[in-house]
Amino acid sequence: MSLDRVIDTVRRLFENATDGESGTEASGGTEIEIEDGTDDEGEEETEETDTADAEPLSEISGIGEVYENRLESAGIENVSDLADADAEEVAEETGISEGRIESWIENANDY
């Protein structure tokens, strides 16, 4: 799952739990702060990424264009995403065999 997808999911969960006031819990309890990827002046923040984050899935032996597209449709966009993936979940989402995905995950972790 890509980091952007996780952030969007968490943001939606917090928005549903808030009363619409920037990060204040609807029940009046603990205040939570939601980071939106911008600094205090509204400028977009950037982060350094490690090599695996930037490496395309096609770097893993056995992943061609068709498999790459199926993995990307499940939110796995690069080698790092694949290394962090759960084989069973990815198999269910993509229709690719769990054994094949386990092998790719192992290769991604060794990358």
What layout of secondary structure does this protein have?
Elements: H1 3-17, H2 51-54, H3 65-73, H4 79-83, H5 87-94, H6 98-110
Helix pairs in contact: 5-6
Note down, in words, how this protein is organized.
The protein folds into two domains: 1-47, no CATH class; 51-110, DNA polymerase, domain 1. It contains six helices and no strands. With 111 residues, it is mainly alpha-helical. It is globular and about 45 Å long.
Short structural summary:
By secondary structure, the protein is mainly α. Helix content is 49%, strand content 0%.
CATH architecture of the largest domain: Orthogonal Bundle
Annotated CATH homologous superfamily of the largest domain:
5' to 3' exonuclease, C-terminal subdomain
CATH class of the largest domain: Mainly Alpha
Q: Give me the strand/helix succession.
A: HHHHHH
Mean pLDDT: 78
The largest sheet, given as strand count, sense and whether it forms a barrel, is:
none
Helical fraction equals 40-55%
